[in-house]
Amino acid sequence: MSDKQKAQITIIRYLRQGRAEPGIVTLTGERYKMKKHLFFAVLTLLAFHRIMPIDANASETPQAFVDRVAPLIYIEEPTSEPTYSTSKSVLSVSGVAYQHQGIINSIQWQNSKGGFGEAIWDAAKNAWNIAAINLSVGENKIDITATGSGGTSKASLTVTYYPSVEPFAKNVANDFNGDGKADLAVYDPNNAHWYIASLTGEQIALANHWGFAGPVASYRNCGNGKSYLVPGDYNGDGKTDIAIFNKTASSTADDGWYAKTTDGRVLAWNIRWSSDSAIPVPGDYDGDGKTDIAVYDLATGIWYVQTSQGEEFALAFGWAEALPVQGDYDGDGRTDFGVYHPATGNWYIWTWRGAYYITQFGWAEAEPVPADYSGDGKTDFAVYHQAEGMWHVLGHDGYKVVQFGWAETVPVPADYNGDGRADIAVYHQATGDWYIWPWFGNFLKLNWGWSETVTVRASW
């Protein structure tokens, strides 16, 4: 007797913990990352072949459970290329599945787009194949009817499909020459000159004037009356651009965003996108490979974003005592919203995929230094304790503590060797020395700067 002819088939839901629930199945909001040339995805409803229903409280390893479960129905994406969207990449299915007593002889299906037909038993996949060739971008309703010795059973599913283009490659922070490695960059606040060099000695910018002479903001010294150094790839060419956000003590005509390429092409001039108590939080919020203009209001906790595509929006996420720690925490190519509460060391993260979570990692004297230290494309939680030069990193590959620095050094983490992981690094302003400790490789000490220059961090 084949698998499809066993005495009882109960549709169940497979849980990651290795537990199962008999009866009704609802699959909602499952996300599948689709790349531009990948036109195939499978939704599988799992069938458990057993006379008695499975105990919902039974515990076993996920693999042991999978070994006892065979797919009953799967849905294929259309083979023709649909319309792609950079804003959504979702294959979600919701509906009620069925319990069928007895032998299943056939399964018919039809959908709201005009498609209908009979499922084909696929012995290789041990499943009924519903070739839903009329699935299209958007919502598709599919009715399934199973006929067999136990009578007729029905299931009604809604398949919502939004494929996406392959995400843009993330640009390396502070990579001013586009070689995939972070460069050394300092700024002289006395004359608004930028000095940038690669680790191999290439002088990318030397006394490049851009900005306003005067105080420069830092993590523990922000607010009005200062310039913020906000380098980023504002035109999407794979190279970090020189940029500042000027915020005078009393609003003047000079307040705004200014950006240009290292060879002098102006990208932004006096773009007035701010609020009275705002600080800059640039990032790629729409995932198009370009740095977007954004600010966070310290008084209200409201984010104001103006994307490179011209979209403008505001989001309330934070409060007066919280500081912004934006980053791509889920690796989808878009900058997510995050705030850090120094008093408690709590991180509050809200992603574009709708995930919200709180992580306690830090304390009042620790400075947040989020970056991708594990190299998996996701921003990790990290803090630097300047008094003792201690780094604490909570990456997706575990927790690490590294002693690298001392009280007079400031953190400058970035991917200096191009291996995809942010390296531990500090800058000593008194001497202009950079100390870099790659996760894999040799320790580096380089001199670029002097006592008057401040480091240009990828995020102030």
In short:
With 460 residues, the chain is an all-beta fold. Helices cover 1% and strands 41% of the residues.
Topology, pairings included?
Layout: E1 8-14, E2 20-22, E3 42-49, H1 62-67, E4 69-76, E5 90-96, E6 99-101, E7 104-111, E8 116-118, E9 120-122, E10 127-130, E11 138-148, E12 151-162, E13 184-188, E14 193-197, E15 203-209, E16 226-229, E17 242-247, E18 256-260, E19 266-271, E20 278-280, E21 293-297, E22 302-306, E23 312-316, E24 323-324, E25 337-341, E26 346-350, E27 356-360, E28 367-368, E29 381-385, E30 390-395, E31 398-403, E32 409-411, E33 424-428, E34 433-437, E35 444-447, E36 454-455
Parallel strand pairs: 4-10
Antiparallel strand pairs: 1-2, 1-3, 1-6, 3-4, 5-12, 7-8, 7-11, 9-10, 11-12, 13-14, 13-36, 14-15, 16-17, 17-18, 18-19, 20-21, 21-22, 22-23, 24-25, 25-26, 26-27, 28-29, 29-30, 30-31, 32-33, 33-34, 34-35
Describe the fold and architecture.
The chain has 460 residues and is an all-beta fold. The protein has two domains: 72-161, Immunoglobulins (Immunoglobulin-like); 184-455, 6 Propeller (Neuraminidase). It is 1% helix and 41% strand. The chain has one helix and 36 strands. The chain has one helix at residues 62-67; strands at 8-14, 20-22, 42-49, 69-76, 90-96, 99-101, 104-111, 116-118, 120-122, 127-130, 138-148, 151-162, 184-188, 193-197, 203-209, 226-229, 242-247, 256-260, 266-271, 278-280, 293-297, 302-306, 312-316, 323-324, 337-341, 346-350, 356-360, 367-368, 381-385, 390-395, 398-403, 409-411, 424-428, 433-437, 444-447, 454-455. Strands 1, 2, 3, 4, 6, 9 and 10 form a seven-stranded mixed beta sheet that branches. Strands 5-12-11-7-8 form a five-stranded antiparallel beta sheet, with no helix packed on it. It has a four-stranded antiparallel beta sheet with strand order 15-14-13-36, with no helix packed on it. It is elongated and about 85 Å long. Mean pLDDT is 75; it is low at 1-102 and 163-167.
